[in-house]
Write a structure and sequence with these properties.
This protein is an all-alpha fold. The chain folds into two domains: 4-251, Up-down Bundle (Growth Hormone, Chain: A); 258-455, Up-down Bundle (Growth Hormone, Chain: A), CATH 1.20.1250. Helices cover 78% and strands 1% of the residues. The chain has a two-stranded parallel sheet with strand order 1-2. α7 (143-172) packs across α16 (354-381). The longest helix has 31 residues, at 264-294.
Length: 460
């Protein structure tokens, strides 16, 4: 009886309800991440009053979650590659919930800073494992769309969290925002434990590892998951290429593997793309309200401009996936990067008239969030299964470095006399550079165009 490669079967067949369920569950976790990261922003004013914080102290607290995310994303990768993406996802969620609950008990700035960093550690781990799981359970045709839906969970969660924070703070105090996040995360841990499957590529990599058991456990688990996806008949885990076989069991040195001769170029290009895109994204999202007041808008109009970026972002995150379902994900990312660079300049040039600025803000948010969807899509496709979680995690960590540096750099440049126009033009040029670094990246997962070519050639 013919056995079918499970990976190739998933890539070439339509998405099943179970696969869409995995995407939906991971997207919900991304929404929780959006809530958790923004929880400090939601509570900034009451926390500042309660703990008598200076502006510098508040700024450190706002960056605490991002610092934790950078560390967590880098830290969890090798463990996820070695022990399982699902298992490390649950551990990261438990750490996240603990950080949220402990944040509600803080009575000083240093104490709250510690708990915010711990919360960020969990968020970074969730992002790493969730990104890999969504990529692996998506077929080639819809992988870009699935990753975009996943990325859209972040702004949706942040927006809903902001709406919930207003009545919570008014009735129960700022601590209730963190408690609610912790409670929802605990419920999510239970749900993930019951419903989220293990990574099939992780099971396949273990099946060729000398450390894996010889009782066929990975094969049986894969067959159960395949049946849930409606794949009938005998299936086989991948016969991975020589790189996967020779690196089996090498996850102890997986950081070094990212810079091995066969991976070095794509790794460095991926890091550059993550840094550039997240630098531009966090520049736009953290400084736009303030910079709009610098050019003459009121505080309320500046905040509204920031909201327009978020509204556009939810649309743009999905729009990237629609295009990526038809064309090469790298080329789509290059187009979005150049368009983002142009929109930074158009946006700041339109600030002489509020309606034009708001429309340009929606378009800027749409396109720059499309770039965020792009980096989440391309990162897991850049590495073989043995290095996938490590590669994604380190790239996320590098990207968070850009996210942390963007607000600091803008503040320093403003102190030196830079105008909003100069800052937005500079950010536009930087983001456009992502188009240069993304095209040479080598992918290890098939794209939609490649699968269509194979179908046309009769290989399926």
């Amino acid at each position: 009886m013919t056995q079918y490669s499970l990976r190739e079967t998933i890539d070439s067949r339509p998405m099943s309800r179970y696969q869409w369920f995995v995407v939906a569950l991971a997207t919900a976790l991304m929404g929780l991440d959006g809530y958790d990261v923004q929880a400090m922003a939601f509570t900034a004013n009451p926390v500042s009053e309660a703990l008598e914080l200076s502006g510098t102290q508040l700024g450190l607290l706002l960056s605490g979650g991002l610092i934790g995310m950078a560390i967590g994303a880098i830290w969890v990768g090798p463990f996820a590659d070695r022990f399982g993406r699902r298992r490390m996802l649950m551990i990261a969620m438990i750490i996240n919930a603990a950080g949220l609950f402990l944040s509600a008990t803080a009575s000083s700035m240093p104490e709250l800073m510690i708990w915010r960093v711990i919360t960020g550690l969990g968020v970074g781990g969730i992002l790493t494992s969730g990104t890999v799981l969504v990529s692996e359970y998506s077929n080639a045709k819809h992988r870009g769309l699935c990753m975009s839906i996943y990325a859209a969970g972040y702004p949706v969660g942040a927006t809903l969290g902001g709406l919930a924070a207003i009545p919570l703070i008014g009735t129960l105090g700022w601590q209730s925002v963190f408690v609610l996040g912790g409670l929802v995360t605990v419920v999510a841990v239970v749900f993930v434990g019951l419903k989220m499957p293990e990574s099939l590529d992780f099971l396949a990599a273990r099946s060729v590892s000398t450390q894996a058991s010889d009782d066929g456990a990975e094969q049986r688990r894969a067959e159960v998951i395949a049946s849930r996806m409606g794949i009938s008949g005998p299936v086989t885990l991948e016969n991975y290429d020589e790189d996967s076989r020779t690196t089996a069991g090498a996850s102890r040195n997986s950081y070094a593997q990212l810079l091995s001769p066969e991976n070095r170029r794509s790794t460095l290009l991926l890091w550059a793309m993550f840094f550039i895109v997240m630098f531009g994204f966090y520049f736009a999202n953290t400084w736009t309200p303030q910079l709009l007041t610098e050019v003459g808008f009121s505080t309320e109009e500046g905040i509204f401009g920031g909201i327009m970026l978020m509204i556009g972002g939810t649309i743009g995150a999905v729009l990237y996936g629609v295009f990526a379902s038809r064309w090469d994900v790298r080329r789509v990312q290059a187009v979005f990067a150049v368009a983002s660079g142009v929109m930074f300049i158009v946006f700041i040039s339109s600030t002489s008239w509020l309606p034009a600025a708001l429309v340009a803000g929606v378009l800027l948010g749409l396109i720059i969030n499309g770039c965020i969807s792009g980096i989440y899509t391309i990162a897991p496709m850049t590495y073989t299964p043995r290095l996938r979680s490590t590669g994604v995690g380190v790239a996320l960590g590098v990207g968070r470095t850009g996210a942390i540096l963007a607000p600091i750099a803008v503040g320093a440049l403003l102190d030196l006399g830079a105008t909003p126009g100069i800052l937005y033009i500079g950010a536009g040029v930087i983001v456009a550079l992502a188009a240069v670094v993304v095209l040479p990246i080598t992918l290890h997962q098939r794209t939609a165009s490649e699968v269509r070519a194979e179908v046309a050639a009769g290989k399926d």
